[in-house]
Structure to design on (151 residues):
């Protein structure tokens, strides 16, 4: 059984309240419950973690090695400037899929660059909560041995 970790970064605890015209009206708990069920239907377990603190996210990435088969990461604003999170991803042997609810490339110019993308196996943006489900599917396919999914 595949074990996956979902990490949501800063301000994602405000889902449902923060800019609902961009992020929708569902809450973080709604998202997590949907994804736990989605993973379970596919024979996987999903553990959810959220933090507004960079160091806690780094610690969670480090702790994932040897425990999880993949990480789904929405690093929020840290995406654009946290070389520390980028280095944490590069330091572990766990595939990471970067996910963003909104299309970061169609928003403010400072959001167009992801410093973590080069050390992930892929990036999914602008598809709302569906992006997280696609990340789960990608990680499960990768665990199944698809050669094209190399870190």
């Amino acid at each position: 059984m595949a074990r996956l970790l979902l990490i949501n970064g800063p301000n994602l605890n405000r889902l449902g309240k923060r800019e609902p015209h961009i992020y929708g009206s569902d809450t973080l708990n709604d998202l997590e419950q949907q994804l736990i069920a989605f993973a379970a239907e596919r024979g996987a377990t999903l553990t959810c973690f959220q933090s507004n603190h960079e160091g806690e996210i780094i610690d969670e990435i480090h702790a994932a090695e040897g425990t999880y088969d993949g990480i789904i990461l929405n690093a929020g604003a840290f995406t654009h400037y946290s070389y520390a999170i980028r280095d944490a991803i590069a330091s572990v042997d766990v595939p990471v899929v970067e996910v963003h609810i909104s299309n970061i490339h169609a928003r403010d110019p400072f959001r167009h660059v992801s410093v973590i993308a080069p050390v992930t196996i892929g990036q999914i943006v602008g598809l709302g909560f569906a992006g997280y489900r696609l990340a789960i599917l990608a990680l499960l396919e990768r665990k199944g041995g698809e050669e094209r999914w190399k870190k």
